[in-house]
Write a structure and sequence with these properties.
Layout lengths: L2 E5 L5 H8 L7 E5 L2 H9 L5 E8 L3 E2 L1 H8 L5 E9 L3 E4 L10 E4 L1 H5 L2 H7 L4 E4 L3 H9 L3 H4 L3 E4 L1 H7 L2 E4 L9 E8 L11 E9 L6 H10 L5 E8 L7 E8 L5 H13 E11 L14 H15 L1
Parallel strand pairs: 1-2, 1-3, 7-8, 7-9
Antiparallel strand pairs: 3-4, 3-11, 5-11, 6-9, 6-10, 12-14, 12-15, 13-14
Length: 308
């Protein structure tokens, strides 16, 4: 049976993303305590894929995922899922508002409810947890001396899964918050181009110099390729050493994307290809007439004619 790992425990938004991804239906789902653990099982061959969060519309990139994909044995993204984020404040049955002196949750969740907390529970101390569902699970286990918090910020599903009481609903500061999740697999056959695709890359500079980032970005600009995400992450080699995690519109089998990768391979110390896959929004990529596959093929044919 096909097995997919995900950032657990049960009741996380990551589980919701895996449940929403059609091919995962009927497969075995394995919760993991961290992104590194889920990807570690994938790299070792113990699971067939892993669903992990990669980007949030409020907080930006998920550093644990970006760093794990930028290093170690190569992995590729084969699909993405967008999940609207709705948070609730949960507690063990019998807990009242006056009992809440500390609140446990994941750091990305806390960042999205800070305003609400300041207005409604200004005295509450934040306690970080591995995930929103882990915070709820610890409360349900009835071990307040280990949790050090009396309430948790989590998904509505976690309240039901763990038999908790909901103290407040829809507590997010941004009602349109969305988290993007990716299904990661070991390198293999590429998903077929759909015309509405993304490609994810990590670029490593040869050295730090004036105009270095511009030199990389020009490879996309001159070929009419739009970027949907650009983030810098420390390489951990030395202070001031960074790599760039990038999402672009298009598929590696598109001529313009392939040409851009050739250019990047020439100017970068390393280019880590993290996959081409269908974009969750399904909107076709707009391609300028001079950057279509046909335009590149015609240009190559012209060059061959000159070379005789």
């Amino acid at each position: 049976m096909t097995t997919y790992a995900y950032l657990g425990p049960a009741g996380t938004f990551t589980q919701m993303a895996l449940d929403a991804w059609g091919p995962a239906a009927g497969a075995s789902h394995l919760p993991c305590g961290s992104v590194d653990a889920a990807l570690g099982l994938l790299r070792s061959g113990e699971v067939d894929g892993a669903m992990v969060p990669i980007e949030n519309s409020v907080e930006g990139g998920v550093s644990a995922t970006l760093d794990a994909l930028a290093s170690g044995d190569p992995l590729v993204v084969v699909a993405e899922v967008l999940v609207p984020i709705t948070f609730v404040l949960a507690a063990a049955p019998g807990t009242s508002w006056d009992d809440v002196a500390a609140v446990g949750t994941h750091s990305h969740a806390w960042a999205q409810v800070r305003g609400w907390m300041q207005e409604n529970l200004p005295q509450a101390v934040y306690v970080p947890t591995l995930s929103t569902a882990a915070a709820a699970a610890a409360l349900a286990a009835g071990q307040p001396e280990r949790t050090s918090y009396q309430a948790a910020v989590c998904a509505p599903a976690a309240v039901k899964d763990h038999g908790l009481t909901q103290l407040a609903e829809d507590i997010g500061d941004n009602r349109s918050a969305v988290t993007r999740f990716v299904l990661v697999a070991r390198p293999g056959a590429l998903p077929e181009p759909t015309g509405a695709d993304k490609t994810t890359l990590v670029l490593f500079q040869r050295d730090d110099h004036a105009g270095g980032l511009l030199e990389l970005l020009e490879q996309f600009a001159v070929r009419g390729i739009n970027m949907s995400r650009l983030e810098s992450r420390p390489t951990k080699d030395s202070m001031g050493s960074y790599c760039f995690s990038i999402d672009i519109e298009g598929h590696v089998l598109d001529e313009r994307v392939g040409e851009a990768l050739l250019g990047l391979k020439r100017v970068c110390a390393d280019v880590r290809f993290l996959g081409s896959y269908p974009a969750a929004h399904g909107t076709a990529v707009r391609v300028s007439p001079h950057t279509t596959d046909e335009a590149f093929a015609e240009a190559r044919s012209w060059l061959r004619s000159l070379r005789g």
